[in-house]
Amino acid sequence: MTEITGVRSTVPKCFLEAVDTRANPRAQMYRGASGWESISAKEMLRRVAGMAKALGDLGIQPGDRVGVFAPNCPEWHVADLAIQGLGAVTVPIYFRESADRMAYILNDSGARILVTAGEAQARQAIENRAGLKTIEEIISAAAPADFQGAILRQEPLIAGAGDAEVAAYRSRVASVTPDQLATLIYTSGTTGEPKGVMLTHANITSNAMGFSEDSELKPGDIQLSLLPLAHVYERTMDYGALFRGVSVAYIPQPETVAEELLAVRPTIVAAVPRFYEKIYANIIETGRRTGGGREKIFNWALRVAHEAGPWRAYGKKASMGLRMRWRVADWLVYSKIRKGVGGRIRIFSAGGAPLAPELAEFFWSVNLPVYQGYGLTETSPVVTANTVKVNRVGTVGRPIKNVQVKIAEDGEVLVKGPCVMEGYYHKPEETKAAFTPDGWFCTGDIGRLDADGFLIITDRKKELLKTSGGKFVAPAPIENLLKTSALISNAMVVGDRQKFVSVLIVPNFGTIDAEARKAGREFTGPGQMMSDAWVRDLLGAEIERLTSQLAQYERPKRFALIEQDFTYANGELTYTLKLKRRVIEERYRDVIERLYADVEEPRPQRV
User: Fold this and answer.
1) Which of 60, 375, 422, 522 is a good FRET partner for 367, with 20 to 30 A between their CA atoms?
2) Rounded to two decimals, what is the model's pTM?
3) By residue range, what is the domain housing residue 415?
4) Residue 188 — very low, low, confident or very high, per pLDDT cuts 50/70/90?
């Protein structure tokens, strides 16, 4: 495959190079009225050029900010590349963002134009128009008919674009420099006020090219665009695909991913750990509901997968007997698991948070390779990555090309490289605090480098719990361990400044119901399960089994059941599905207080 321009480039220049040297007839794929349809690279360029002309006609100049408020769809990248081709700055907004937060981002960034796609986004923008102080115009694709005159419709704006507009776009792109600001991405804000992260073209292109270089992307690959494009992880992954002539298939509603995996049959998927946790839970629940001989075969195959973990995940030697049993299990069970996610996955990429090693081992054991990486919005995002060429399960990989990593005395991961942000928009003090005096970016994550330079992340620096006995506890590894159980849908460890740690558990009611039926028990619903002693004993035994190898101070001594899972809509998760711990602790303050009502008797108890 033709080599791509060096590290110091611009996003639209890399796009043009891809169109000119690796033109893909299915560059963009999307679900239309009659099924999955595609847009060629050349048609994508025509649309980008038409959008750039429309924005230029509205007065957008280099350095101006333009908001993009849309689900994952072809129009997202069309708007983004048009904005950046003018030397302007893209300000992405999560497509399910609240009205207040959307207004904050647009007002803080000083965005002049807002581009939307989809009826829900257009309606929210129009209905909250009075609060968007700096917005001059709203452009919308597929806008609702009853908003005639309130917005500019994208379709007629780009309909007549042709060779002249493409030539003009190429000319404008030539004047954009790598050091220009490309985007302002507002952090998801697990704590405090969101900050606008300033990323230049060089930040992004160095990352997209550095990360994709070792990924061995191939002509004919299809990458699923699943995570919100407002998040830098999906955005950079998709840039890497587009720059290398790989098809990008957009999933506007993450809830439909199970269906679309079967329809699109992608070869590459980037997702957060919660995605893999849910796939695993669905596999276990489906297998255990088959009943009879088929369930026995499924359970046998799970045991073989566990036994094969050291071989399949870590490359250790395996006996001939194990290899033969694995082949049989693959034929009977694992092949069906792979078929359930489309049957063509070459690369599952995991980022955004640590993935439990046990979960990674399972996927490798069933021949669904998961390559973990690590990064932040402030690093564009990839810092380290496991790849097809070099991989070590249980780590988040080695630093990508041109990126340096070191560990501070307190265990914090520090980063240097061309991917590191310019700073936080209009926040000089916060920017200064984010760097060491000698210029290393402070990630806020705790980790270590192994003897071969692979990074292991243990937890967030600010999320470490400290018991009253002075022991520091990293909650994420414990939570990840618990979520490997088919009985547990979600978990959050609590216990800062307490004598011991406890855990809030969201049960997997479907799996528990199946187990109850086998034991001759029936429940009318989750409410009855929550108060049933048999269910509590079942979960208590599962927690004790899963945490038995942890240090004594890391084992949860008590647990409480939560009926509703944590969600973004309830303000308990970021849009990349990370726990907002402070929000959850406040919401369940009474529940947590009951966990510690009798600290003199720290034996395992259920509340």
Assistant:
1) 375
2) 0.87
3) 273-343+345-462
4) low
